[in-house]
Amino acid sequence: MASGTSITKGEGFIGRLFTRAGVTFADNTTIDTRGIYGQTSTATSTGTGTLVSNTYIVLPVSGTLDSDIVLNMTNGTASTFSLKNTSGLTRIVDVSAQIIATTTSSNVIGLAIGKAGTVIPASAVSRTYLTSHVSADLTTRCLVSLAADEEVQLFVANLGATNAVTVSRARLTVCPV
Q1: Rounded to an integer, what is the distance from CA 27 to the centroid of its chain?
Q2: pTM here?
Q3: Structural domain boundaries enclosing 99
Q4: d(Cα 75, Cα 63) in Å, to the nearest integer?
């Protein structure tokens, strides 16, 4: 269906309607179907330094924005490892975060997604790090309402100790719903 196509109110259609510019109905109501998406990542080994036990921090390194798969997003400016909504509109998005990390044996590594500098508790996951020879892989995702110019961040923590967490790879991805 082309941009600007009129649909009489009450007509049904099945499935999702994907266009770049949106759809205008016969009564001039417009649904903006343009989404936002983006991905920032790092493969640079990054240590968190000494942590406060059970306290999440934003990963202290800037990610590299993947310019091939980005629409209405930039790397964040308020936090180091973050993505910012530049669409000018509030969007519901699917956010995922992944890390490969190490710490001192028997410590628990935590990963969470945050919005506007605050951890989203429902996104928090953890894994006990048992050996110094194997990296811990953690992944989480959640739906987020992201206002214009608002940012989502990747948070890490040592849950139960103050030892540093070393993140060797990290990725934060935002997809339209």
Answers
A1: 36
A2: 0.79
A3: 38-176
A4: 7
